[in-house]
Amino acid sequence: MTETLIETETGSAEETVALGRTLAGQFHPPCLVLLEGELGSGKTTLAKGIVAGLGAAREEDVTSPSFTLVHEYAGREKVYHLDLYRIEGARDIATLGLDDLLEDQATVIIEWADRLGRRLPGPHVRIRLEHRDGDRRRITVERDRG
Amino acid sequence: MLILGIESSCDETAAAVVADGDRILSNVVASQALTHEKYGGVVPELASREHLRKITPVVDEACRQAGTGLCQVDAIAVTEGPGLIGSLLVGLTYAKATALALNKPFIGVNHLEGHIHAVLLQNRSERRAGTAEAEARFPNVTLVVSGGHTCLFRVETIERDGCPRFSYRRLGQTRDDAAGEAFDKVAKLLALGYPGGPVIDRLASSGNSRAVDFGRVRLKGNPLDFSFSGLKTAVLYRLRGTDLQIEASERRAWLSSRREQGRAVSPQELRERCSQATVDLVASFQAAVVDDLVGRTLAAAEQEGVECIFVSGGVACNSLLRRHFAEAAQRTGLPVLFPSPALSTDNAAMIAAAGYFKLRAGECADRSLTAHASFPLGA
Fold first, then answer.
1. Which of A51, B147, B204, B274 could be B180's S-S partner, Cβ–Cβ 3.0 to 4.6 Å?
2. Cβ contact B181–A64 (<8 Å)
3. Mutate to test the interface with B, among A16, A67, A71, A85 (most CBs of B within 10 A)
């Protein structure tokens, strides 16, 4: 069952970060957060807000995990920040050990989550980011109780 | 003293033998670029399998070229992080097992520390050959810039018991994408091939770098931090809904058909498939990245009051970056030192060179040495 939590527009990267901080208050680990949207739509920017809002790391220390695939932030809460940009097949996704990360009572944020296809482990929050004019982004947040 | 270095943090399997920290007896790198090319990026599961296949032949070849055997090396230095965990583990486990079996000391090296030592290694070997233009000095400011990293460090040495010990303080880093990652992503957007750095460098040489003004990246907070994700998005906006996008999708189809035929694409063929507007966009993008890297590095050198700058990592091969730093060196009188291209990209000679100083300082690892995907240096 899917319910839409928020449908909004942000006008700048700062507003996107602020939205991430607000959203973080509604996530209770273990929690899976899927970020979808094309290159430059603000996925890492939103992730900065969520991670900072959860008290796991400072906003400026949250960077793109495209290279190492997984960044781990452990402060007040534990967050795993994944990026499937370079991931191709289902077998590669299996090597990420998603189930193990969720068992860790952590919040797991996944960029380029559309590459997971239909293989979703239980309840999750899905956030879609779309380009609007200039720095504006349309952001839709849905919760799926699995 | 002979050190065997092993590096497998990303998509290169590398081994090298270095004598006394500055004589490179061998430096073998097996690149996986071809394996990853069709994906436009590194595929981790493929990377670790390729490392497994290559590690033994690469180490054997490094020993053969150095005219030595594993029994003759004095110690083994290996990259412990940061990097892809599956890739790191292949090199680390191999190094540890070999060292334990031969009862030799082994040393864990931070990959970024390796890149810093690549500059020193280059300078020391040039000085021995009498070809060095300047002497590497400390404290200095080092820019490490690659596909996975964009960091500024202050590097110091203190001499203790006749042996230099190095210390590192991170002054700034990227807040989003690494510079090399931005090159890869822009190359992917424009369908120019992989890896993006060398392709863009070549194409940009025939483009007008002032055609598109991307403006300066302004950041709140630490002025020595970097940000490249906005630049990537700006390129996307220049592309969307224009002829450039149609051109890119035609090029994408052409590149993939050539790949299926197993025929390599020459730089000239690629150039012929690019309009002048595309080449100008690429040249302007590259100039914006280079300006930002050079500007913040010079600001760091001024802030820290150092007398020397090191630049290392894969993006240090970029010809515009080298040229702009050379001009800055002329203007300011501050020497800017680079490794050779072979020592700029990932290699094991830099790991062996860093390991040499750690061994002399008595900083050996024990059996608990393990790989770390995230492994900050000097934070």
1. B147
2. yes
3. A67
Would you list the domain boundaries of chain A?
A: 2-144
Domains present along chain B, CATH in parentheses: 2-135+342-360 (3.30.420.40), 179-334 (3.30.420.40)
Lowest mean pLDDT among B32-46, B58-72, B315-329: B32-46
Determine if the pTM surpasses 0.80.
Answer: yes
Chain A from 40 to 59: CB within 8 A of any B CB: 40, 44-45
Test A67 with B232 for CB contact under 8 angstroms: no
Contact across the interface for A68 and B82, Cβ inside 8 Å: yes
Name the residue among A62, A71, A88 with its Cβ closest to that of B39. A88
Identity at A5, one-letter amino acid code: L
Most A CBs within 10 Å: which of B9, B42, B224, B233, as the mutation test of the A interface? B233
Q: Name the residue among B86, B173, B229 with its Cβ closest to that of A44.
A: B229
pLDDT tens, residue by residue, A6-48: 999 999 999 999 999 999 999 988 899 999 999 999 999 999 9
CA-to-CA separations, A95 to B11, B45, B67, B139, in angstroms, rounded: 17, 7, 39, 42
Question: Would you call A63 and B233 a contact, using CB atoms and an 8 Å cutoff?
Answer: no
- B186 to chain A: closest CA residue: A39
pLDDT digits (tens, 9 = 90+) for B179-204: 999 999 999 999 999 889 999 999 99
C-alpha span between B189 and B192 (Å, rounded)? 8
Q: What is the fold, at CATH topology level, of the domain defined by A2-144?
A: Rossmann fold (3.40.50)
Taking residues B75-86, report their average pLDDT.
Answer: 91
Q: Where are the alpha helices (DSSP H) in B261-275?
A: 267-272
Q: Provide Rg for chain B, Cα atoms.
A: 21
pLDDT for B214 equals: 92
CB contact under 8 A, B41 and A86: yes
pLDDT grade for A121, boundaries at 50, 70 and 90: low
- Look at residue B165 and give its three-state secondary structure: strand
Q: Is B175's Cβ below 8 Å from some Cβ in A?
A: yes
Cβ(B344)–Cβ(B8) below 8 Å? no
Tell me whether residues A86 and B42 touch, CB distance under 8 A.
yes
Number of H helices, E strands in chain A: 4, 7
User: What pLDDT sits at residue B134?
Assistant: 93
* A102 contacts A108 by C-beta, under 8 angstroms: yes
